[in-house]
Structures
1.
Amino acid sequence: MTKTIAIIGRPNVGKSTLFNRLIEKRIAIVADEPGVTRDFIIEGYEDKGINFNLIDTAGIYESNKKKLSKVLKESSKSAIERSDILIFLLDVREGITSDDLYLSKLWPKTDQRSGITHSWC
């Protein structure tokens, strides 16, 4: 069974850059301005003989009220829900923000399929 990995985080923390590096292709758009990724991208990825579906998600802000931001947030939530593994990227130069804390609460503490309890540090 192929596992799905989603790369999540605020805008401009390096999600698309990591995605491109892992799949060894330039599929995801990388730019200095936030909000370039508008929908999640799924690509096959193999590591040490194990196949994964890797998802690059749009960045999530907690408080942005713009309609587009709400659509992107829902898209990223959908990617989180369909994933078995999450890679949560942070920008260490800015430290942990309220948006990071909001995002950390979007995934369930226990996986309903496996009963595994998740945590982050």
2.
Amino acid sequence: MLQCFDEASLLTNLPTVEEVLGNHEQLLGTDAIGYRNHVYRVVNLCLAVARDNPVELEKLAIAAVFHDLGIWTNHTFDYIVPSVALARAHLAARGRADWSPEIEAMIVDHHKVTSSRSHPLSLVESFRRADWIDVTCGLRRFGVPRPFIATVRHSWPDAGFHWRLVELTADRFWNHPLSPLPMAKW
């Protein structure tokens, strides 16, 4: 996948992502396009980070669509627990509760600054790296070539997503100066 930097090689429509985002479109409001694009950037970057490791695409789609969703469903920047709860309910409703530990680890660790020691070569670590690549706009690359990151960002434009994160961070810092980034961990 990394040898091909064209838009045709990217995943652009995942049924689970479309269903979940469709169900939450009103809550997402003006952030719907930005969040959708973030989800697809993370999915495609995760596939690039994972390289030759097998990726269970449905697990990736579920983790990606729910990983930040608690921001909007619970109106909080301390969103990890609500996001995990949403993913867990989704999995249970579809008879996939056995996937919960891995999906939860992907959501809980996605803002971990250091590598996931408990899952060093797993989808959990690939997902963490992919989210960092996107959140840092490619400043952290984890070996993913810049042209591929640029292709992903061109295919799925920011649409205000990163500015929204800046706004949420500033608001959180103003209201909770001792805990400005509750989702981050070492």
3.
Amino acid sequence: MSEAQLSALRGDLVECRLCPRLVAWREEVAAAKRAAFSEQDYWGRPVPGFGDPEAQIVLVGLAPAAHGANRTGRMFTGDRSGDWLYAALHRAGLATQPTSTAVDDGLGLINVWVTSAVRCAPPANKPLPIERDNCSRWLEAELDALEHAAVYVCLGGFGYQAMWRQLTGTGVSMPRPRPRFGHGLEIVLDGITLLCSYHPSQQNTFTGRLTEDMLDSVMKRAVAIAAGAAGSGPS
């Protein structure tokens, strides 16, 4: 059932034009293009999540990059953040290859789903609160369809806050006050776990704030949590 839900959701999502500022920006970028990609057709629409419909691990980022997923049409594909993320997923046994350059490059994800809180590329990579709230309906529907999710990896503070709002609205018992975001933060809730990582943006990776070992540690922990959740299920 979840795969059918996700397919239907994708069809609705890619037609969304709810946020005028984001619509204008994503389409402007797609028309102007970056010189290095001048011969390519940009996606220029909302970007759906990607991965294994039966995933136990869900990665939640901020938003598509203007010349990354807004160009390719697949989350974290075609930019430096994606280079880091998919390499880490491959090292953790969650991806069939270490790179992601296009939707038809053969990449497959294993027991993981990759998504974001906002689905259109925002100017300066900074969505407005109203845009975040408008987009929450898509994340909510996606999470509802991912029936086997056991651990949510929040990539950056924006992803963490988005997941916190989503879970608060579902009746899950949440600790108060909300724990401060930090790399490696782990919060065990009712049958699920929130796990935090610094976002693999160039701002973090170029400065050494996020290293490969740090990202690998989070992915390894996510795999362990998922394995534990599977082992505790009905026999």
4.
Amino acid sequence: MNIFGKKSRTIITQTIAYIILTGAVLLVLLPIIWIFLTSLKSKSIVYRIPPVWLFKPKFQNYTALFSEYPFSKYFLNSALVGIITTTLATLFGSLAAYSISRYNTGGNGLQGFILNSYTMPSVVVLIPMFMLMQVFGLIDSYIALIISYLSFLLPFNIWMLIGYFDGVSREIEEAAFVDGATKLQTLFYVTLPLAAPGIAATALLSFLLSWNEFIFALILTGNKTRTLPIGIANFLTHRGVLMGELSAATILTIGPVVILAFSIRRYLVRGLSLGGIK
């Protein structure tokens, strides 16, 4: 009887867990599915209430993005700035995090400053950043965006990677020293490969932060360097919300991030698990 009772409790527990997980997945997927279906509707039915469920899919909203709006420019601007800022933040963040993890560079004071810089609201540095960029004539330039994005991406990378480097055994590095490797050789051929999952996870999260950044891009960009979040916000016009174009732009915006996440999902899961255990 106890065996059957234990099996019954196990089945009930698993069923409840599956129901909760299914609900969580639907909570995330249903809005995306709704947006995707809206992006395929024609302008004559996109605003209908109640919504039209059966319709012939059309791609006029997607074609309009490239024929009537400079969406390709917004996309390229976001991609360029995101790749550059992620690369710089990951490179210098890795070196700084390794130095802090292994040699306690700056002590607790520096780590506290890094954490404070990461958690500080962007609006606090927005006005000083705008004034500096205006003085140096960098408004509506890629340099302005890269510098402003690094102000929060670099602290984020350093703080995340400190934990990952702490998880790499020091004995492995000491064994490399015994075999005659220098500190730089040990860093590049031993430590960094072992911390690669954590670095990949941090780089992806950094790219997400850069890709979705709005407030700096709103103030520091113009017609030449406008990014996707600002371009998408332009579909909220004085005539109302352009639902078809907005939905199509949203799908095209989240697409590259989803593809990138799936392409490095093995490293991402390992990196996030390592950070969670640490």
